Amino acid sequence: MKYWIGAAAVLIAAIATALSGANEYFFYAAFVVLQFIVLATAWNILGGYAGYVNFGTAAFFAIGSYTAVVLFKWLGAPLGVQIAAAALVSGLLGFGVGLLTLRLRGIFFAIATVAIIFIMETLMVNWRYVGGATGLQLLQPKVMEPFATYTRMLFVVMAIVGVIAVSVARYVQVSWIGRGLRAIRDSEEAAECSGVPTLKLKLFACTISGALMGAAGAPMPMYLSFIEPASSFSLNYSVSALAMPMIGGTAHWIGPVIGALLLGSIQQIVTVTISNEINVLVVGVLLVLFVVLAPDGVVGLFKRFVKKK
User: Fold this and answer.
1) DSSP code string of the chain
2) What is the pLDDT of residues 254-279, one digit of tens each?
3) pLDDT value for 277
4) pLDDT tier at 306 (50, 70, 90 boundaries)?
């Protein structure tokens, strides 16, 4: 009950902020941070709970973006339909990728997920309907009342997607599915011997993870008013999605949220005050520091502090 009250409070606060007179840049930056929360949470369902390190985040994110573009260009579909369709298509992609790669383990699985990025990018580069290699310019539709700008509306939409993503991750963690995924992470052979349906659980995790990543990517074309393969399939998405749960902590659903808030906020501040090019350096430095000094992330540090007291 406390969680749902907190989730409702977050959404109410997001709507109230969007209707306030806050500076417009806040919504541009907050949208990205919320998007990071969804990506980090989605990655953690497979990478954190099950221990399968997925470097293909950019592929699912971009496919979600391109699905939204196709529906908008073809049917003029509203944003809600775009997000739902993006989640469906990316989820199906996750299921297909899972069938092909989840029998691999360790570095072999990681390499296979990287390959998915280049395969999907090549397909989009050669698809003229969505602009090919040069990309496609988009016009934002008329903003819905009561929001003053489209960016403010996107901020609220991403807050809703974020709450849904975190709620799904929380449910997975506390359910038998989470227990099964953690058993796979600890010892897949032992889990199989204990009767855990390892392949089914891994396919479920890969599908849900892909669907949430696609949902995160769907609003991006309208946020930028532009889409092109090079930036949509950027490996920066894959690195950030991995780094944020590592920084926050992969063992608990709140870890990716903390990591995304921390890393995303720092990146936005660095972008404004120094340079956008420093963002990758920030990710690298923080990731190294936490891997070396706090391998369990912020959540692990907090637990150790509580135990000492």
Assistant:
1) -HHHHHHHHHHHHHHHHHTTT--HHHHHHHHHHHHHHHHHHHHHHHHTSS------HHHHHHHHHHHHHHHHHHH---HHHHHHHHHHHHHHHHHHHHHHHTTS-THHHHHHHHHHHHHHHHHHHT-GGGTGGG-EE--PPPPPTT-SSHHHHHHHHHHHHHHHHHHHHHHHHHSHHHHHHHHHHH-HHHHHHTT--HHHHHHHHHHHHHHHHHHHHTTHHHHHTEE-HHHHT-HHHHHHHHHHHHHH-SSSTHHHHHHHHHHHHHHHHHHHHT-GGGHHHHHHHHHHHHHHH-TTHHHHHHHHHHHH-
2) 999 999 998 888 888 877 777 666 77
3) 67
4) confident
